[in-house]
Amino acid sequence: MSRKSPSTVEELRLALEELGLNSSGSKDKLRRRYRFREQRLEQKKKQEQWNLYSLENQAKIHLRYLLIVDVEATCEEGCGFTFDNEIIEFPCLLYDLDTNEIIDEFHSYVRPNMNPILSDYCKSLTGIQQSVIDEASPFQQVLENLTEFLRQHKAILEPSIDEVKILEPSRAIPRSQPKNWAWACDGPWDMASFIAKQFKFSNTQIPDWIKGHFVDIRAYFSDVYHVPRVNIEGMLQRWNLRFEGNQHSGIDDSRNIARIINRMSMEGVIFECNRWWLKHEINGWIPGRKYPPFLSKRQK
């Protein structure tokens, strides 16, 4: 139960004395002095939380787990990122950077709401047939299933997804308490575009555990090896590896991203978050990264 604010002169003087402050003066002066103290205490509390969630503290906890995601979404031939994509496949691989292996997988198809009939182009690109989508669960149910999947690993994910809190300053990148896990995907689009759009179209509140910082593997690969950004197949070519499975299959793309992470880890690469997102069209880079951004002539 919250403490009642002092209102009488006597109560104000007693409260100020308890705080070690001057208790003399008129009632108006006592009230202003007390309110100022309350404001300072609130500012101090916010600053302590901000310091706890500072970017410097992120480096003090070992990033051990990556949640690799590569969603597929509704599309039409020639459509760009302004298209109203809805997710139709949602994989999530739990990857252990210490043992360098996938330790669990989540995979689900998703039935879109606005455009439940897939275009011929979308079916050809993703290999997902209409009959699969017709029997799939809506996004809200898939999100609940993903939540339960991650809760099953609360013993190793620190903090657990239910404990994650994001601070959203108006003029700075978002911050959260240090975590030993992060999302990872090929480029920014899965998190900052497709998933962000899906929450917008579903009119669903974005949970703190899915937004915030993440690892853009495509950009990370470019920064580490000082090469232009290329797709999954292009990154695999560094080790003369071929893409396994079907390209634009969410689960196959995710497993091949895991292969890239595996090879990078074997070469001593240390992963950290390089991007962030909060909602659709609100995202950006994290400065001061371990591997400075590489800018090719094409990117300058």
From TrEMBL:
GO BP annotations listed: exonucleolytic trimming to generate mature 3'-end of 5.8S rRNA from tricistronic rRNA transcript (SSU-rRNA, 5.8S rRNA, LSU-rRNA); negative regulation of regulatory ncRNA-mediated heterochromatin formation; regulatory ncRNA-mediated gene silencing
Subcellular location as annotated: Cytoplasm
Coiled coil, from the record: 27-58
One of the record's GO molecular function terms: double-stranded RNA-specific ribonuclease activity
Domain of life: Eukaryota
Occurrences of domain SAP (ranges): 4-38
Claim: Coiled coil is one of the keywords in the record: yes
Record-linked PROSITE patterns: SAP
Main location per the UniProt record: cytoplasm
Gene Ontology cellular component annotations, sorted alphabetically: cytoplasm
Keywords: Coiled coil, Cytoplasm, Exonuclease, Hydrolase, Nuclease, RNA-mediated gene silencing
Name of the featured protein: Double-strand siRNA ribonuclease
